[in-house]
Amino acid sequence: MAACSVSVDQDEYNSRADVQIRTPVGHVSVQTGQQLPDTGLAIYPGSVPVRQHREAETANVSVGNSFFGVRVAAANFASDASPHAVLEYYRQAMRAHGPVTECQGNIDFRRGRPVCHSKLFSRSRTLQLAVGTEARHRLVSVKPRGNGSEYSVVFVQVKS
Q1: Per-run averaged pLDDT (10 residues), the chain, 160 residues
Q2: Which residue of 20, 21, 49, 154 could cross-link 57, Cys pair, CB 3.0 to 4.6 Å?
Q3: Count of CA atoms in the C-beta half-sphere (13 A) of 80
Q4: Looking at residue 117, what is its pLDDT?
Q5: For the chain, which residues make up each domain, given as ranges?
Q6: Amino acid 87: pLDDT
Q7: pLDDT digits over 47-68, tens only?
Q8: How far is 44 from 54, CA to CA, in rounded Å?
Q9: Strands 26-32 and 113-118, how do they pair?
């Protein structure tokens, strides 16, 4: 029988956890609570990590084997800056990765590129920016929070 390994490392305050599962057919790796996951985008100046309903503020997740895989890096932040200022910062930063799609609604991928599916009369206060392809993209989601903003930065990479 082939060997499998499972490793779980959690800090005493439950703010950070690392889980590694390796089998002969693939692996799963989850790391939460790291300060800066590699999303390929800088953090808006002055932002602070924010927890959402007891979830970690950051996560790096990788699932795969030698034939396929998915990597997701995500982080949640709060800023005293307005949603408009945060969105403008990320519009500029994301342009380095290609054309930016902006949406107040759901973003889907058609023909490999992001497409906005906005809902008529949407009451959502969240705006999203997306750049890249279905196999490799970045997403920023921004909403008002008090006098400032709350936002998430996500990087997804699929290997097939």
Answers
A1: 54 55 61 72 91 59 71 89 97 96 85 77 81 92 94 87
A2: 49
A3: 2
A4: 77
A5: 5-159
A6: 97
A7: 998 865 555 556 666 666 667 7
A8: 23
A9: unpaired
Q: What are phi and psi of 139, to 5 degrees?
A: -135, 135
Neighbour-count burial for 111-142, b at 16+ CB within 10 Å, e otherwise: eebbeeeeeeeeeeebbbbbbbeeebbbbbbb
pLDDT of residue 142: 95
Tokens read off for 90: 């990320």
Element (H, E) at 87: helix 83-94
CA dist., res. 91 & res. 106, Å (int): 17
For residues 38 and 36, what is the distance between their CA atoms, to the nearest angstrom? 6
Residues 6+ apart with CB under 8 A from 93: 41, 42
The pLDDT of residue 9: 58
Distance (Å) of CA 6 to CA 23, 32, 64, 102: 9, 16, 15, 40
pLDDT of residue 49: 85
Structure-block tokens of residue 43: 């953090």
